[in-house]
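Sequence and fold:
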Amino acid sequence: MRAILSNPITGTLPAATEATQIGVLPNLRLIIDTVLNLSPDVYIRDNAADTGEPHTGSISSSPDII
């Protein structure tokens, strides 16, 4: 885990003008997508007719979690 989080290839390097040595800031989205090869698997519908398009209304009446 340390190697993955400190790898400069999957991180955001400090600015060239940065005076302190803070090291690599991990880019978690890049690590999840490329190193761990994970994808989201939870989708929540607001109602049975929900197609994923933006809408208004209550989101507390979700009929299911897929």
